[in-house]
Amino acid sequence: MPGSSKRRVAGQVDRLECAVRNCWEQWTREGTHVRKIGSGVTRKTTRREDRRIVRQALVDATVARSTIRADVGVAIVPQTISRHLAEAYLKSKHPFRALPLTPEHRQLRLQWCQDRSMWNVTDWQKFVFSDESRFVLGTDDNRVRVWRHPV
């Protein structure tokens, strides 16, 4: 890095100063910047435990991450379980609350609207609409989530 400070280079490549320093030291020591095989955080689970995590999510789509962690018997954080399931192309979603509308249902709804298109205010005052909205102030909405392959 002749002529440039590590701080300036780090700013130009949008990396931390220590990352630039480590890269430069590796280059001067080994003549390469390539990452070594096996570098990084060591895995907390074996391949067999990874397959067991995925199998549990496939067998019971509503299983919670805490249940999977207890069944596997390895001290891992919930994010690790989510990462393993994401590697298996599984995503956590809310289950369907109702089946999607069929063309027949859509036709019936349209017919219902057309039948009432000429109603006046007095007719509509006799009718009651209900709308259910859910508001959550905390982080947990206590809804069941399911693990599914993205469509």
From TrEMBL:
Coiled coil, from the record: none
Recorded superkingdom: Eukaryota
Family matches, as InterPro entries: RNaseH_sf, Transposase_Tc1-like
Gene3D superfamilies: Ribonuclease H-like superfamily/Ribonuclease H
GO biological process entries: DNA integration; DNA transposition
One Pfam family named in its UniProt record: HTH_Tnp_Tc3_2
Domain annotation Transposase Tc1-like: ranges: 50-115
The protein's name: Transposable element Tc1 transposase
Organism in which the protein naturally occurs: Trichonephila clavipes (Golden silk orbweaver)
Gene expressing this chain: tc1a_547
